[in-house]
Design goal:
alpha/beta; 29% helix; 10-stranded mixed beta sheet; 234 residues; 21% strand
């Protein structure tokens, strides 16, 4: 199929091992081949998770903690580059923030079982529901969800999450910028992944910009401590 401007769209594939190794060396600062990785785009969460680790000198701040790597990834789609770069059968835990669509308490943690990409240019406008044919990317990490059956809507930017608020409340439990991308990339690359999303706001009227870290600090600290204990066995 030929797209606009003569670009050819093809089936998405995982890059070859040469690309993957170069990506690991560049992004992480080492050819890391461990079984577990934790990703987060939030600097304060990375600092808490990486405490006591050995920092590497890559494009993305990376700390090695036992057999795990803790990586400060970019927001949005670019986070999946590390998913494609990792060796096979890696267990991935993503820790991020999300806007709640079900009036969840601030600080609640959602572990979505699936996610979809919501695009305002793809037929989502006014009071129309999100397109019913958007594919769901199911998580594959064998962990019991904290909020059973939750669905995450993934948007390209914070403005889109606000613009699509009314439509998303009919089809999702929360909205973020990474989950669907990570689920789909992990499925292609053969990894296990879960996304742990702390509700930071209610996604209305620019709530995200008035939600201070103090509102979620306790929940984030508890979550980070639990993940660190899992990683270190302590």
């Amino acid at each position: 199929m030929t797209g606009q401007g003569g670009l050819v769209a093809s089936t998405v594939q995982v890059p070859d091992e040469q690309w993957r190794r170069r990506a690991r060396m560049t992004l992480l600062g080492c050819d890391w081949l461990g079984p577990e990785v934790v990703l987060t785009p939030i600097r304060t969460i990375h600092t808490a998770l990486a405490r006591g680790g050995t920092e590497r000198d890559g494009w993305w701040r990376t700390s090695l903690l036992g057999d795990a790597a803790v990586v400060h990834v970019p927001q949005g789609t670019a986070a999946k580059d590390i998913v494609f770069a990792l060796p096979q059968t890696t267990r991935i835990t993503f820790v991020g923030l999300a806007g709640g669509l079900r009036n969840q308490p601030i600080g609640a943690t959602v572990d979505p079982v699936s996610a979809f990409i919501a695009d305002p240019t793809n037929g989502v406008s006014g009071q129309q529901p999100c397109p019913p044919d958007l594919s769901l990317h199911s998580r594959s990490h064998p962990a019991k969800p904290l909020s059973p059956g939750a669905v995450a809507a993934t948007v390209g930017c914070l403005a889109d999450s606000t613009l699509l608020h009314e439509q998303l409340t009919d089809v999702a439990d929360c909205v973020d910028m990474e989950s669907a991308h990570l689920f789909s990339a992990a499925a292609l690359a053969g990894h296990q992944v879960r996304c742990l999303l702390v509700i930071s706001d209610h996604n209305r009227h620019g709530d995200v910009f008035t939600s201070t870290p103090e509102r979620t600090a306790s929940a984030v600290d508890d979550l980070c401590q639990s993940i660190q204990e899992d990683l270190t066995g302590g």
